[in-house]
Amino acid sequence: MTNPSGDPVPAISEADATGEVAALYADIRATLGVPVVNLIWRHLAMFPGALPWAWEALKPLYADDTIAAQAAALRAELQVPALAGLSGPTLAAAGLSPDDLSRITMILRSYERSNAMNMVALCALSARLKGQAPTAGEAAAALRAEAAIGGEMPPLLTLDAMAAPVRSLVEDLNRIGGRDEILASMYRHLANWPVYLALVHALIAPYAAEDRLEPVILNVIENGHQRAAGISGGLATPAAMPGDAAQAEMAAALARFTDGPIGKMIAIVPLIRQAMPA
Length: 278
Prior knowledge:
Layout: H1 19-32, H2 39-44, H3 50-63, H4 66-76, H5 88-93, H6 98-129, H7 164-175, H8 185-190, H9 194-209, H10 213-231, H11 244-273
Helix pairs in contact: 1-3, 4-6, 4-10, 6-10, 6-11, 7-9, 10-11
């Protein structure tokens, strides 16, 4: 069952957030340098005390760029092919304007960055909740700070707001790579340009059908957990710990997301983004 917002799990939308939740969302956007709060954070906001605890625990690892460095290293180690590109003339003939392409690229870059950071960060939180001892992880190479990704996200369309063929297309795209219990929000943003989603489906479906995508996803998930275990000792220890029930719900949610849509989309988004014209 979905919420009126269209989210596939209970969540507080960015538009509906108020008070402490709205302030935390603003800090998450500013810290990650993206104009969107990913679904996992909006989901954690539903559990009493979970979002403030999670963000306070992680903030030191964001402040010293540990998460950014590990996320960038995770992305750099991805081995994805450069698929046949969506040329400028192809996209123009499909009716996509330069402004459309600029906004689409902003969406792709936002999810590419935030998914990798969320993977490392949330796996570290998961390790803390499970009581796992930190491992001796390798430090990622120092990075030049990335500029924040500016822009305004388009409406996050609900499935009910989409024309029937577009809804079917979004659902078909979400099935690519499996792990489709949770609908990836990126496809809902890109559903504002149905013709682009149709081109994306034609681009990545054959690659997945050749069983070339699954090994990449599995490698992302394994790498993410390994990197997180190596930095989990740097998590802060907030004074206020959520209750046992909220902790159990958090642990289940983190596992569902990191081993599900986040791990999958880290592998898929570069396939799409690299196919865009320079």
